[in-house]
Amino acid sequence: MKNIKILSAVVVVAVTFISFKGVQKQKEAEKAEITAIFEDCSIDFEAQLKASLEMGNLDASEIEVVEIEEEVNLGFDTFEYLPLDFDPYAGANLSDIDFEIFEEEEIVELGFDTAAYLPADFDAYAL
Question: Dmax over Cα atoms in the chain, in whole Å?
């Protein structure tokens, strides 16, 4: 009986030590994974920083602009629906003066006087 108690105590202690060793290995693996992620991020950051500095040294004549003009197919011939003297560029020289913008501001009624809840020197349009 005494041997069984000693044997079970040894088994319990051995299982405990094995479990602690597994936890330690898991922590080491997590630490290695975090370190690898950090190193990848720092390498990417350095590359992005170098590219950013190189972009700052560009000359405007070195920049090439590529414009892609896509043709829109409406499924019918639009020429049939336009007047004979139609000129799409007839009013192309318009400016801001040619347009009048009408914006009607909607008045919001809250049902109480808001001035009672604001400071005495409050200016909503002050910067």
Answer: 114
pLDDT, tens digit, 9 for 90 and up, residues 47-82:
777 777 777 777 777 777 788 888 888 888 888 888
Amino acid identity, residue 57?
N
For the chain, what's the residue count?
Answer: 127
Residue appearing with tokens 């011939």:
77
Give the distance, in angstroms, between the CA of residue 60 and the centroid of all CA atoms in the same chain. Answer: 28
d(CA 97, CA 85): 27
- Side chain identity at residue 82, one-letter code: L
For residue 98 the two structure tokens come to: 């040619």
Any idea of the CA torsion for 11, 16, 22, 25, to the nearest 10 degrees?
A: -130
